[in-house]
TrEMBL record:
Chain positions recorded as ATP binding sites: 61
Family: Belongs to the protein kinase superfamily.
Domain annotation Protein kinase: ranges: 22-280
Protein name: non-specific serine/threonine protein kinase
Superkingdom as given in the UniProt entry: Eukaryota
Pfam families (UniProt xref): Pkinase
A biological process term (GO) from this entry: intracellular signal transduction
UniProt EC number: 2.7.11.1
Species, as recorded: Blepharisma stoltei
Key words, A-Z: ATP-binding, Kinase, Nucleotide-binding, Serine/threonine-protein kinase, Transferase
Length: 360
């Protein structure tokens, strides 16, 4: 028999998968387009996180490309240290993205509780992210939005990377790609220059700096002020800045990541340069990948999110006009069912496969 490749892009999501297939428990998060719910799939009894996004909000915020890009990327990515997509479907008003449930909460929530992490905890979170970076970068993908909100913990405490809305397959000419979160954006992105995988390493350095000190290295009220602060001087940690219990190797690691010039930044020569730094040399990478190490930070057995923030509404007056057929066409091909797709790539993969499958 010949090779049978099923195309699901034009599949009617109301026939096989819809909102009624899931039992909605309660909201566990809120994004720019809607809420994230803890749900139970009625048939399998499995628990997931379901992101419910109002189409009218997506259109009004000119973010159609972002949500469609995330769906395309997640359909071919699968890894133990990212938050994997299980289903995607839509109805007339909403898009629904069903993901792995991460009951441990995000690191912004936990950082707000503890203000700072210990060196051992910071190294653990960094190592989890390095494993995720290794997979993404070898797959030729830049995440471009590394920040505490986008790092979530499973029930054991392992860190997973999420939110691929502005992630991109690397292209040499990408100076027009300037989206991101200013406090974590690399100088080359803020200055509208071509950029590569080193932007993720800069953000990793900002994270480690923030976990250690409780603040980011470059501060400002908006993107311009943060850019000006970066252009004004190169921030570097000094011996006098070292909190009790932290090593000189940790300081050196952070200082080399937050270098303003990407060619001077740790990681500019590849992920192995990061993994071989003295601060990470004792990491047992194979055991960490298999999630078989002692975890220095265990999330509480409770709802690890701010219920007040989740329940807050929006202050704007966006009308729901997503019923128009022209608007519906903007979301063609959103459907995804992990049980029907076999497009996922291996944990070590040829980046050319991704570039062929994603039409960005």
């Amino acid at each position: 028999m010949g090779n049978c490749n099923l195309r699901m892009d034009n599949y009617d999501p109301t026939v096989s998968l819809n909102r009624q297939n899931f039992q909605f428990q309660y909201p566990i998060g809120k994004g720019g387009f809607g809420k994230v719910w803890k749900v139970i799939q009625k048939k399998s009894k499995s628990s997931y996180a379901l992101k419910e996004m109002l189409k009218s909000r997506i259109i009004a915020k000119r973010s159609v490309n972002s949500v469609m890009n995330e769906r395309r990327l997640l359909s071919i990515l699968r890894h133990p240290f990212i938050v994997n997509m299980q289903y995607a479907f839509q109805d007339r008003e909403n898009l629904y993205l069903v993901m792995d449930l991460m009951p441990g909460g995000d690191l912004r929530y936990h950082l707000s509780k503890v203000r700072k992490f210990s060196e051992e905890q910071t190294k653990f979170f960094v190592a989890c992210l390095v494993i995720a970076f290794e997979y993404l970068h070898k797959s030729n993908i830049i995440h471009r939005d590394i920040k505490p909100e986008n790092i979530v913990l499973d029930e054991a405490g392992y860190a997973h990377l999420t939110d691929f809305g502005i992630a991109r397959v690397f292209q040499p000419e990408n100076s027009n790609e300037t989206s991101g979160t200013p406090g974590y954006m690399a100088p080359e992105v803020l200055c509208r220059q071509n950029h590569g995988f080193a932007v993720d390493y800069f953000a990793l350095g900002v994270l480690a700096y923030e976990f250690m000190t409780g603040k980011r290295p470059y501060l400002g009220r908006d993107r311009k002020e943060i850019r000006d602060a970066i252009l004004a001087r190169q921030v570097q940690l000094k011996r006098s800045d070292i909190p009790e219990g932290w090593s000189l190797e940790a300081i050196d690691f952070i200082n080399k990541l937050i270098q303003r010039k990407p060619q001077n930044r740790l990681g500019s020569l590849g992920i192995e340069e990061v993994k071989e730094h003295a601060w990470l040399r004792d990491v047992q990478w194979d055991k960490l990948f298999d999630k078989n190490i002692k975890i220095p930070f265990t999330p509480p057995d409770a709802d690890n999110f701010d219920s007040r923030q989740v329940m807050n509404g929006w202050k704007d007056d966006i009308t729901n006009n997503s019923r128009e057929n022209s608007n519906q066409n903007l979301f063609n091909g959103y459907f995804y069912d992990m049980n029907l797709h076999s497009e996922g790539i291996n944990l070590t993969t040829d980046s050319s496969k991704i570039e062929k499958k994603i039409k960005l």
